[in-house]
From TrEMBL:
Domain Aminotransferase class V: 4-361
Cofactor(s) for this UniProt protein: pyridoxal 5'-phosphate
PROSITE patterns named among the record's database cross-references: AA_TRANSFER_CLASS_5
Protein name, as recorded: cysteine desulfurase
Family, per entry: Belongs to the class-V pyridoxal-phosphate-dependent aminotransferase family. NifS/IscS subfamily.
């Protein structure tokens, strides 16, 4: 039985072209980009070309791109790097951020920093005025994600960035889930720092980047060589970076097509549910096209996901799995409260390359069958 993979928001398969480039680069571009001999210079040309393509994908300049091991490191570099570079002990974020941001902020709290965790509304969105009202004289950083990885809600980043102009506060956004699906321009968003990861856009795992606007204060977290303009020590992973750039180029070229397909997939789910009288509610608002997070009254998410997996569909609760049990989603807690039924009956379907409308229909029909079967117990 072929598994229908509907968990692309967690990670995505490598695009065949990106995988091909990665495999070839392992044996061809193995040189150290910092070496001055021919092999090193060849690797440097590949590195520079990839950096240019990735910078262009967000409207940035080449020197503003810092290669990292992925989104988590990029988030940590933005947060700890700002904290180590600026005077002040106050940071603003939201209750619905990715754990790479939340746990980093919690560590800073242990070191004596103060963090304001802004609430979100019932659609998972931050009120820009709440950001401004939370500002203090010692605020050094605001970090709000561009779009949520669990429910897909898109945040008003450009509006927040406009309000922060002239305050001297650095503005970071985690764009990991939105990159490759939304047009992104760092000037239009008014951000100083932006995080991206390759494995969410059909590139390899273990590579990503942090955009750092020119003259934005930031200190490195890793020390050693002078790679990445002394901002991130360590020999660059040229094969992964070249593969990353290939995946991004394809993502940029196919963005409109993918968005249309994914919106059609959502509509298939809605239609199948409606035809079978399945009661459900969509979580979030103004969402990314590939995330369909729904609440189905009366189901238990753990048994539901197990049954779905056994039927050949890979999906997720969107929340952390710890020791074999699913913890309540902190995003849904922020939206609905600690005792909301949505915490126990929400499931996330997320779409990506390789899927067909027929497979989506099959997945929706299997979801209906499982829902009705579990409701009878």
């Amino acid at each position: 039985m072929k598994q229908i993979y509907l968990d692309h928001a967690a990670t995505s398969p490598m695009h065949p072209e990106a995988a091909k480039v990665f495999a070839e680069a392992l044996s061809v571009h193995y040189g150290n980009p910092s070496s001055i001999h021919q092999t090193g210079r060849s690797a440097r040309r590949v590195l520079d070309g990839a950096r240019h393509l990735l910078a262009s994908s967000i409207g940035a300049q080449d020197p503003e791109i810092i290669f990292t091991s992925g989104g988590t490191e990029a988030d940590n570099l933005a947060i700890f790097g700002t904290a180590n570079a600026k005077e002040g002990r106050h940071i603003i974020t939201s209750q619905a951020e990715h754990h790479a941001v939340l746990h980093a902020c919690e560590e800073l709290e242990k070191a004596g920093y103060e963090v304001t965790y802004l609430p979100v509304d019932e659609f998972g969105r931050v009120n820009p005025q709440d950001v401004i009202q939370a500002l203090r004289d010692d605020t050094i950083l605001v970090t709000i994600m561009l779009a949520n990885n669990e429910i897909g809600s898109i945040q008003p980043i450009a509006e927040i960035g406009e309000l922060l102009k002239g305050t001297g506060v650095s503005f970071h956004t985690d764009a990991v889930q939105a990159y490759g699906l939304l047009p992104i321009d760092v000037d239009a968003l008014n951000v100083d720092l932006l995080s991206v990861s390759a494995h969410k856009v059909n590139g390899p795992k273990g590579i990503g980047f942090l955009y750092q606007r020119k003259n934005t204060a930031l200190k490195p977290l890793m020390f050693g060589g002078e790679q990445e303009r002394k901002r991130r020590a360590g020999t660059e992973n040229v094969p992964a970076i070249q593969s990353f750039a290939t995946a991004v180029q394809i993502a940029q070229e196919t963005m409109d097509e993918k968005r249309q397909s994914f919106m059609e997939y959502k509509e298939i789910f809605r239609t199948v549910f409606s035809e079978n009288a399945i009661d459900f509610k969509e979580n979030g608002s103004e969402q990314l096209p590939h995330i369909f997070n729904i609440s189905i009254p009366g189901i238990d998410i753990e048994s539901f996901l197990v049954n779905l997996d056994l039927s050949g569909v890979s999906a997720s609760s969107g929340s952390a799995c710890t020791a074999g049990s699913i913890d309540p989603s902190h995003v849904l807690v922020a939206m609905y409260g600690q005792d909301a039924p949505e915490l126990r009956n929400s499931i996330r379907f997320s779409f990506g390359i390789g899927l067909t409308a027929e497979e989506i229909t099959q997945a929706a029909e299997k979801t209906v069958q499982i829902t009705k079967r579990l409701a009878q117990k």
